[in-house]
Design goal:
Blueprint: H1 2-5, H2 10-52, H3 56-69, H4 81-84, H5 87-95, E1 98-102, E2 112-117, H6 124-130, H7 137-140, E3 145-150, H8 160-166, E4 170-171, H9 174-181, E5 188-193, H10 196-200, E6 209-210, H11 217-225, E7 228-235, E8 242-243, H12 251-263, E9 270-271, E10 289-293, H13 307-328, E11 341-342
Parallel strand pairs: 1-10, 2-5, 2-7, 3-4, 3-5, 6-11
Antiparallel strand pairs: 7-10, 8-9
Helix pairs in contact: 2-5, 9-11
Length: 343
């Protein structure tokens, strides 16, 4: 009789296990998110403490090594499969979840630039798909190596730069992109979030505003290196957070834009859900992200492209990006009348 009272129906047992798995995923994601956001401050604090307490035998060798290693983020970085295989990245991917969709095979004898859109607040789709070993990237694109290019600012922080590089990101500088795309043999992909920090300020749910009209540097590099261009749209990226209203011309947007120019990165005022409740917090909403890789645009190498050639290829890229969005938007829950806004 006592045994019978403690029996749990199979369905209820599965619900309990699912709830525990969900909580583990939430807590793991919370750790990942804030380790990325605040570990740079922690690393700076460690360096300051070493200097204050005069642990010269630790910081002098490190700074000496750092002097000689300073250009590594512009020379392909230093990824670690051990770090990319950490189980926490699996929870990161499964939290939303994140999916990678291929629309066409790519030729591994060529190098490519993936133009990633939109930036969103977190750029979760770009990180989850191209900086961990838990995405379907290797299965979908065998023979390729992807390099996610991020702001050079993040590689100027001692210790943190090692943590960041270990998962695969490299600098978004011209030298860095050219280094990846000039590798012989092909099979290299530069993933560039073209809208940049400015676009994150327009990352509101239901909005599809892309800062692309004035972004032409990637087109010039594609021409000079002969790299094929591929538009990539990450459906769901803008749905992860809500932002405080900041329309162009508002005092908040003006302050954000001024800070962006000073610091080099934007500060969107976002909120979403908490860990143990869903009303308010800094955890992103669990919205599925579908990162769709479009058709490649062939590019003939032109060492000294003219302004007309750059403009023509840029227009072709924007047309292909719009086609990609239009072909897949309904499939991922976007109304038929919604369209992209190019700024």
């Amino acid at each position: 009789m006592l045994v019978e009272e403690f029996k749990v129906p199979a369905e209820r047992g599965l619900q309990i296990l699912a709830a525990r798995e969900g909580l583990l995923t939430d807590l793991s994601f919370y750790f990942i998110l804030y380790s990325l956001l605040f570990s740079s401050q922690v690393c700076i604090g460690i360096i300051v403490m070493l200097i204050i307490h005069n642990y010269w035998f630790l910081y002098i060798p490190y700074f000496t090594w750092l002097y000689f290693d300073w250009r590594t983020p512009e020379q392909g970085g230093r990824r670690s499969n051990w770090v990319r295989n950490w189980t926490v990245w699996k929870y990161f991917k499964d939290y939303f979840p994140i999916h990678l969709i291929k629309t066409q095979d790519l030729d591994p004898s060529h190098n490519y630039i993936f133009g990633f859109h939109p930036h969103g607040v977190l750029v979760a789709g770009a990180f989850g798909n191209f900086c961990t070993n838990y995405s379907d990237f290797k299965e979908l694109f065998p023979g390729f190596t992807a390099y996610l290019h991020v702001l050079p600012f993040w590689f100027r922080c001692p210790l943190f730069r090692e943590y960041l590089m270990s998962s695969g990101p490299v600098s978004v500088s011209k030298k860095s992109v050219s280094y990846v795309l000039s590798k012989d043999g092909g099979g290299n992909i530069s993933v560039i979030v073209l809208g940049g920090a400015e676009e994150s300020l327009d990352a509101h749910p239901g909005k599809f505003t892309l800062f692309i009209r004035q972004r032409k540097g990637f087109v010039k590099i594609a021409l000079t290196q002969g790299a094929y261009l591929v538009p990539v749209f990450s459906f769901g990226e803008n749905e992860l957070f809500k932002q405080i209203s900041n329309p162009e011309g508002s005092w908040l947007r003006t302050v954000q834009e001024k800070l962006q120019k000073i610091m080099g990165f934007a500060l969107p005022l976002f909120h979403a859900r908490g860990v143990f409740q869903y009303n308010f917090g800094l955890m992103p909403y669990r919205k599925a992200i579908h990162t769709v890789v479009g058709r490649p645009i062939p590019v003939r190498q032109t060492l000294h492209p003219t302004l007309e050639q750059i403009e023509e290829l840029h227009q072709t890229y924007m047309e292909e990006l719009r086609k990609l969005f239009e072909e897949h938007k309904v499939k991922y829950g976007i109304s038929e009348h919604e369209t992209l806004i190019f700024k």
